[in-house]
Amino acid sequence: MAAHGLALISRVRVMERLELTADELLTTTRAVRKRLDLSRPVERSVVEECLQIALQAPNGSNRQTWNWVVVDDGETRGAMAEIWRGGAADLGAAAAAAGAPSRPPAERQPQIMESVSWLNEHLHEVPVLVVATVDGRPEGASMFAQSTMWGSVLPAVWSFMLALRSRAMGSCWTTVHLEREQAMADLLGIPIDEVTQVGLFPVAYTVGTDFKPGARQASADTIRWNHW
Ligand SMILES: Cc1cc2nc3c(=O)[nH]c(=O)nc-3n(C[C@H](O)[C@H](O)[C@H](O)COP(=O)(O)O)c2cc1C
Question: How far apart are CA 83 and CA 74, in angstroms?
Answer without folding.
Answer: 15
